[in-house]
Amino acid sequence: ASIYGVLDMAGNVWEWVNDWYDETYYSKSVSLNPTGPVSGKYRVLRGGAWNYDDGLARVSYRYWLGPAYLHNYFGFRCAASP
């Protein structure tokens, strides 16, 4: 459980997020809730997956792939803003 009481947020499947990948983006972005680049070639995945090393099962680790790439250990999480 996270400090917010949320369960199983990492380690199930890599989760596609809305951000485009840019290797240097975080070094030049705002520090509070950066929105990510407006375009790019690759999309970001987070959270690790059941078939990867446990050290990658954390939301702070960013993985990246082309958005058309499919596999059974990639998924997404539905979320809504309040």
Describe the overall structure.
With 82 residues, this protein is mainly β. It contains one helix and four strands. The protein has a four-stranded mixed beta sheet, with no helix packed on it.
* Class inferred from helices and paired strands: mainly beta
Strand percentage lies at 15-25%
Helix percent reads under 10%
Largest sheet: 4 strands, mixed
Looking at the chains present, what oligomeric state does this protein adopt? single chain
Run of helices and strands: EHEEE
Shape: globular
Q: Can you count the beta strands?
A: 4
Uncertain spans: none
- What is the count of DSSP helices, taking H or I runs of 4+ residues? 1
What is the mean predicted local confidence, pLDDT? 85
Terminal Cα span: 22 Å
Strand order of the largest sheet: 3-2-1-4
Characterize this entry briefly:
With 82 residues, this protein is mainly beta.
Fold blueprint:
Blueprint: E1 14-20, H1 25-28, E2 43-46, E3 62-65, E4 74-75
Parallel strand pairs: 1-4
Antiparallel strand pairs: 1-2, 2-3
